[in-house]
Amino acid sequence: MGIKIGVCALQGDVSEHIRAFEAALSLLGEGGDVFPFRKAADIPLCDAIVLPGGESTTISHLLKKNNMYGPLRTFKGGIFATCAGLVLIGREVDDPRVEPLGIMDIAVGRNAFGRQRDSCEMAVTIAGDDQPFCGYFIRAPVIVSVGPEATPLCYADHIVGAVQGPHMGLSFHPELGGDLRLHLLFLERLRAYATAP
Ligand SMILES: NC(=O)CC[C@H](N)C(=O)O
């Protein structure tokens, strides 16, 4: 038994997320099931969902086609959204081809680092952690503004991570590189929100 983590596998980097969450659960000495899903009916069966990086206009189109907007908006667990996933999870995005889910109170700008930084590694500061995190940014979005419901979590020139309840949205790819601090923090917060009265 244990926690059930579903990785939305319509498009994007799915296997890296599965490996990273499996490694985080094994560090915690916990059982659990981390699996790809492609059907809306699988969403309410999960405790947590990963919205991976990929191409947000494509993922938005596929979420619509597979009737996933409704079940994601009413999902009771935590969502771990990276890169294209971050573009989708906010309340506002600067591209009309993406329909935002409106789950986190953030506004997101796509491809915000510009061409010369299409893909790079940058030191990310995580609030409450004095060790920098090596962030892999791949045509990454940024968080342009954080509303009162959400809290900034990560910084690298811009705000590149935020949390809201059990949800975490990140501009970069923490599933690459083997540093599991953000996965562990997500699981810790998920547990805290699941057991909150
Ligand atoms: N690595 C990524 O997920 C890139 C996201 C992409 N630039 C988008 O907005 O869809």
From TrEMBL:
<comment type="similarity">
    <text>Belongs to the glutaminase PdxT/SNO family.</text>
</comment>
<keyword id="KW-0456">Lyase</keyword>
<dbReference type="InterPro" id="IPR029062">
    <property type="entry name" value="Class_I_gatase-like"/>
</dbReference>
<feature type="binding site">
    <location>
        <begin position="138"/>
        <end position="139"/>
    </location>
    <ligand>
        <name>L-glutamine</name>
    </ligand>
</feature>
<dbReference type="GO" id="GO:0005829">
    <property type="term" value="C:cytosol"/>
</dbReference>
<dbReference type="GO" id="GO:0008614">
    <property type="term" value="P:pyridoxine metabolic process"/>
</dbReference>
<feature type="active site" description="Charge relay system">
    <location>
        <position position="173"/>
    </location>
</feature>
<dbReference type="InterPro" id="IPR021196">
    <property type="entry name" value="PdxT/SNO_CS"/>
</dbReference>
<dbReference type="Pfam" id="PF01174">
    <property type="entry name" value="SNO"/>
</dbReference>
<dbReference type="GO" id="GO:0042823">
    <property type="term" value="P:pyridoxal phosphate biosynthetic process"/>
</dbReference>
<feature type="active site" description="Nucleophile">
    <location>
        <position position="83"/>
    </location>
</feature>
<dbReference type="InterPro" id="IPR002161">
    <property type="entry name" value="PdxT/SNO"/>
</dbReference>
<protein>
    <recommendedName>
        <fullName>glutaminase</fullName>
        <ecNumber>3.5.1.2</ecNumber>
    </recommendedName>
</protein>
<keyword id="KW-0378">Hydrolase</keyword>
<feature type="binding site">
    <location>
        <position position="110"/>
    </location>
    <ligand>
        <name>L-glutamine</name>
    </ligand>
</feature>
<feature type="active site" description="Charge relay system">
    <location>
        <position position="175"/>
    </location>
</feature>
<dbReference type="GO" id="GO:0004359">
    <property type="term" value="F:glutaminase activity"/>
</dbReference>
<dbReference type="GO" id="GO:0016829">
    <property type="term" value="F:lyase activity"/>
</dbReference>
<dbReference type="GO" id="GO:1903600">
    <property type="term" value="C:glutaminase complex"/>
</dbReference>
<keyword id="KW-0315">Glutamine amidotransferase</keyword>
<feature type="binding site">
    <location>
        <begin position="54"/>
        <end position="56"/>
    </location>
    <ligand>
        <name>L-glutamine</name>
    </ligand>
</feature>
